[in-house]
Design a protein that fits this description.
68% of the residues lie in helices and 0% in strands. The chain is mostly helical and 360 residues long. Helix 6 crosses helix 7 and helix 16 runs antiparallel to helix 20. The mean pLDDT is 86.
């Protein structure tokens, strides 16, 4: 129930805020991020809108397998000076900082949540073309819930979301700096570096599906290659649980990414700035299908799903104004059904019922 109330409040308040004269005046100036009385008032109201979602997320307790398993042990290992060669340095420093103030590991996850959502919500405030839609996608893309379990990766994903405008603005060095910063929390984000160059090219659907077909044919060889690498390296214990995605996960990922892809193909007008969106959607769908055969690749689907925070507003903006209501409803039905399934039916994150560490 708390998630439904939280969603209704955030979207309702966000819609009122986005349609207010105060918010609209932001776009009447050449530099709408300039400091002024209006800008301070706008940002304060924005904080009031998003603060409940951040607090509910940050004060959670016991969500997912990683909460009391991975991160409890990690916190005390860092605090006690035990070497962790496979832990990314950025997360090590974050944990070390928190551990200098407390002996309770829950504050490590509290700090990670706050940092993740400060980055994402700043990115939305600064760059989203449709504020309310982006806020809704935090919940409906499952980013809100994924970040309770895959903590380090979603922190890296938050930095990637912040960096997305740098791709569209051709600011390579700023994008590279963001990817490097994100890699300090999860090294998998380096896979997203080529997106900067890929986004300059229009997708050739025939070539892309040919590549997909070749990878599909070589799936057994790729499967064995990854397993051999993990089994013979020091990262086995870290990634053993991610070697194979379950059927339910593969099916859910495939339906949402495939559905978004179909809506995009049939209802969205492509332009130069939408190339990045197309790449993310296509790659998300391909990774979803391949996750049934190629170990670990399902983790990359999470980056594509997190990107819906910006992709869906861009889709709505580039639809035919006379007929856009139909694909908009289809999009919300698709992502809404996905969220209901994974959170309330499948209970992937063990988020039902909600428990706060203040009441453990």
């Amino acid at each position: 129930m708390i998630y439904i109330i939280l969603f209704i409040y955030t979207i309702g308040a966000g819609y009122i805020f986005e349609n207010s004269d105060l918010y609209k005046r932001r776009f009447l100036t050449h530099n709408f991020n300039a400091l002024s009385y209006d800008s301070i008032k706008r940002f304060f109201l924005y904080i009031l809108i998003v603060l409940p979602m951040v607090l509910v997320h940050s004060f959670r307790y016991g969500f997912g397998a990683d909460y009391s398993g991975t991160y409890q042990a990690l916190f005390y290992d860092v605090k006690n000076g035990i070497p962790l060669p496979n832990l990314e340095y950025g997360y090590y420093l974050l944990t070390k900082f928190v551990a200098s103030f407390t002996d309770d590991y829950v504050w490590e996850l509290f700090a990670a949540s706050v940092l993740t959502f400060v980055i994402v919500l700043l990115a939305i405030y600064r760059n989203s073309s449709m504020l309310t839609v982006s806020l809704s996608m935090i919940f409906l893309s499952a980013f809100y819930f994924d970040s309770t379990n895959t903590v380090r990766q979603e922190l890296a994903a938050a930095i990637f979301i912040y960096a997305v405008p740098y791709i569209k603005e051709n600011k390579f060095w700023k994008y590279l700096a963001c990817i490097f910063l994100a890699s300090l929390f999860h090294t998998s984000v380096w896979l997203l570096l080529p997106l900067y160059f890929l986004s300059k090219f229009k997708i050739n659907k025939k070539i892309l599906f040919l590549v997909f077909f070749i990878v599909f044919l070589l799936r057994n060889q790729l499967n064995q290659l990854v397993i051999n690498f993990v089994n013979t390296s020091s990262i086995y214990d870290k990634y053993e649980n991610y070697l194979n995605a379950g059927r339910g996960t593969v099916l859910a990922y495939s339906i949402i990414t495939g559905g978004i892809l179909l809506i995009y193909i049939f209802f969205v007008k492509e332009n130069d700035k939408s190339k990045l969106d197309m790449w993310l959607i296509y790659l998300g769908f391909m990774f979803s299908i391949l996750s049934a055969f190629v170990p670990y690749i399902s983790r990359y689907v999470l980056y594509c799903l997190a990107s819906l925070i910006f992709i869906v507003p861009d889709m709505f903006k580039n639809m035919n104004p006379q007929t856009k209501i139909i694909p908009e409803i289809m999009t919300y039905l698709l992502v809404g059904s996905y969220t209901i399934y994974i959170v309330f039916i499948g209970n992937w994150y063990q988020a039902i019922p909600y428990i706060s560490f203040l009441n453990r």
